[in-house]
Structure formats: C-alpha cells, structure tokens
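Hi everyone,

Forwarding the result from last night's run.
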Amino acid sequence: MLSPLLAAALCALPAPRAALHPNSFSTSQLTVQGAAVRLELRVQALSLIEVLPEGLDADGDGALTDAELLPRRDAIADYVARHYVLRTGSGGDRTKGAVLAGTLADLSTEAEDEQGTAWVNATFEYRADELLPDLMIEVTLFIESAPDHRDSCTLVWNGGEPLESLFWMGEFRRFYAPASPPAPTPLSGWIRMGVAHILGGWDHMAFLLALIVAAGSLHSLLGVITAFTLAHSITLALAALGIVHVNARLVEIGITLSIIWVSVANLLARRPQGRWKEAFCFGLLHGLGFAGFLAEAFYGEPRRLLPLVGFNLGVEVGQLVVVLAVLLALALVRAVARAASRAAAAAAEAPRERWLAPRWVRLTASVAICILAPWWFALGAGWV
C-alpha cells in the first residue's frame, strides 16, 4: 500500500508519454538535375502525428487522410524544411554554402501496406541560381520522437547511377560532389534539340506538309511559313518563361484538330488560298506544344533566354529542312510527270490551277493526314 503522501506525489507527476511506434522509418529520393533538386519523401503517418500532434490526426485513428493533411500542409512543409536540409556550394563545410529553399509541390496519403502501416508521400522542389557544384544532405527527421529513426536515401545526380545512403543513429550528414562539375548546355546543344524535336514530331511535320501542299506559289508559301513561325515563337516564349500556363492534354488535342482542319480544307478547296490566317492561329497552339517539350528540358536549367533562343532557332532550322525537302520532292514529281506524259491537258494543269503540288499529291497527302492524325494522337496518349 502506498502512503497517502507518496500517492499524492505520484499523481502530481506528468503522465508518461504513450509508447511511440517501433521501427520508425522513411525513404527519400533526391533527383538532381542541373540547378534543380526534387525530393520525394515517403514517411509513416504515425511519425508525422508524433511530431505534429496538434490537430493532425483529427479522428485519432493513427492514420491520416488527405482531408486531415490539407489544414497542416504549411506545418508539414516547415517541419521538413528544418529537418531535411540541402546545402550547396559548401565544399563539405556545413557552415558554408547556401541552403536551398524548397517548395511543397505535392502531399498525399497512401493506403496501409500489408503490415498495416499507413504512409504519407510528399514531393518538394528546390532550385538554385546556378548549376549545383555539390550537395550536402542533413537529415534529422523524427529524431525528437524516435532517436533511432532511419531514412533510406537514394540520390540520382544528373542522370547518373543511383547512390544510396542511410541516415540514422547520429549519421545525419552526407556530402556529395561529382568528379566533374556540371557544365551548362551550349547554344549549339539547344539548337540541335530544336532540330531533333521538329524532325521527330509527327504533328508538326504533318501540319507543315498540309500547309505546303495547299500553297499556290512560293510567295504564298513564304507568307504561310512566316505566319506559322511568328505565332509559335510567341507562345513558345510565353509558356517557356512561365507567363502562360495551359493544360498539356488540351494542347495536344487542339494540335491534332488543327492538322485535321487544314487537311479537310485542302480536300474541299477548288483553288489555291493563302492560309496564313490559319497558320498563325494554329501556330499559337503548336508553340504551346513546343513549350511542353521544352519545359522538361528547362528543368534544372538556371538560364532561360539562351535555351529559348537556341531551341527556337533549332525549330526554324528543322522547319526549313522540311519545307525544302518537300519542295524538292514536288519538283521531282512534276518533272517525272511531264516526262511521262506529253498530253496537252497534263501540261496545262499546273499553270491553270497554280498549285505547288499536283492534284493527286495534294489529295493523297490530305486524306492520309486526316486518317493518321487521330491514330497518332491515340497512340501517343496510350489509348491504343
């Protein structure tokens, strides 16, 4: 039996903290690309509840829902910022260099696994003002509630081989510096990227072909190509610089419809028409399509103007190659047709209609593009 005095003293003591969950564990993947870092963090829901107990687990079930996470989004971001620190330019000295500021890009829950553990996934984006020469990683997640917490980290540096590290039991820091510092992509590299994109993109190639076979003269074709170039240069710049934001899937659908529209117009046309208005309007859409590709290449690139100018130059070079190749092919077709037939009607067809492309070429190309454009889109979207 406890004496009344001892019992009163025990009652006055603070209640012991509930036992914390064992095997506290998290995983993190760091992807470095140029001047950018993406952190994909996967933590146990109980770990977050233990370090942020105020109102996080509203129903007290030990698991979390997206609705419970949303009100504490800023608190979670702040906690990670203080306990998962990335420093660059330090040379291995934690007192030097600059700490990267991260932005919480995504936060979601994950269903319980086979062991009944609930998880939370968080993605953070970091960006420096220049290419990262090195990276110091300091991870102290959840050590205040679970001193033996482990974080299994995978680091991928500019597409290299994954490097794995384990942060636990006082091993809080890792320093990584590549043997050869990253070098910025030169102007020629962005030009080559633009050329490769236009020559490898079925949508832009098909649109250009539809415009060329509809032209009545080189002068008319020059106006059409100029309008298309001006339009896609405008939207490419606006989207690549982050001034305009659009839904990529809607842009892809719009580009496909623009190709079909021009092809159908070719089938219905009775005489050559200046298509510069259609070229300009639809060129705005195609520029957004270019920007969607360039945005991926921009990831981790601290510069903006040089890549934008270089890529756009590459697109124009690739576009010029396509136009010249098609014009050369049309010239050869006409030469062969004249040599094969001496009939007066055949000889008079070109001056009378004043098309750059013979009728059978124009109709065949337009029908093929009308049929293939939806198929290509469905194939790219993974529908077939």
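Confidence is low (pLDDT under 50) at residues 4-19, 344-352.

Cheers,
N.
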